């Protein structure tokens, strides 16, 4: 399998035809998978915002004041308001905001980015990343994964994950198959969309440089049982349930 960045992709602006820009710079085969950082998808879809678009309400002001008291740094209540408006659930309010976005992804600050946003204050995640991936998939004719970076429970650092995809399953279900000793597998579901997103993220780069699109050659998504479930539902998300119990006990 080969993973390579798509070079020389200029700064993306609202209304840009992202699929056309990718097609101009990459010779795609039908078996390729294109991974696209959510930042450029959001920019093309006009998701850059000024914080003045989020006048802070009482709850956002309270959250900002609490976080400032914990961290010792002033927090903009307008940013807290933006996080609240982009979320359907607030799992943690301190020492950071852990939220569920409107499309089901759980992450810090609803995935709102404050870096590499020229002429704006913040960049929101795509409204519906699966639909964004579907439009790119239809235009490019290959599977597409929209990626983001987020932290991981119990481990240091961030890594790439899939927040939207089209043209390939979210996971490979190994349950019912057998290991080399003939034992039947009962729990293994491999998150292939996340694994491909993480591989692509190695080529993206961070900070002031990088290429936000990568092409993965040599991965075959066909021929195995798959699942379209990308996000764990609330009933089986035991970490979320533990967070709620901790939050209630603390209050």
Low-pLDDT sequence parts: none
Helical run tally: 7
Shape, principal axes of CA atoms: globular
Reading side by side through the largest sheet, how are the strands ordered? 1-12-2-8-9
**Assigned CATH architecture of the largest domain:** 2-Layer Sandwich
Structural class: alpha+beta
Q: From N to C, what is the helix and strand string?
A: EHEHEHHEEEEHEEEEHEEH
| CATH fold label of the largest domain | 60s Ribosomal Protein L30, Chain: A
- Domain module count: 2
CATH H level, superfamily name of the largest domain = CofE-like
| Largest sheet composition | 5 strands, mixed
Number of strands: 13
> What is the averaged pLDDT score?
91
Strand content: 15-25%
CA-CA gap between termini: 50 Å
* Computed Rg: 19 Å
Helical coverage, percent range: 25-40%
CATH class category label of the largest domain: Alpha Beta
Keywords:
single chain; 251 residues; alpha+beta; 60s Ribosomal Protein L30, Chain: A; CofE-like fold; 2 domains; five-stranded mixed beta sheet; three-stranded antiparallel beta sheet; 7 helices; 30% helix
Structure description:
It is a single chain. This protein is of the alpha+beta class and 251 residues long. The chain has 2 domains: 1-46 and 128-251, CofE-like (60s Ribosomal Protein L30, Chain: A, 2-Layer Sandwich), CATH 3.30.1330; 48-125, CofE-like domain (CofE-like fold, Alpha-Beta Complex). It has 7 helices and 13 strands. The chain has helices at 18-25, 38-44, 58-71, 77-85, 129-140, 192-204, 238-250; strands spanning 2-5, 33-37, 48-49, 87-92, 98-101, 106-108, 122-123, 144-152, 155-166, 171-173, 189-190, 213-217, 226-227. The strands form 4 sheets. The protein has a 5-stranded mixed sheet with strand order 1-12-2-8-9. Strands 4-5-6 form a 3-stranded antiparallel sheet. Helix 1 (18-25) packs across helix 5 (129-140) and helix 3 crosses helix 4 (77-85). The chain is globular and about 55 Å long.
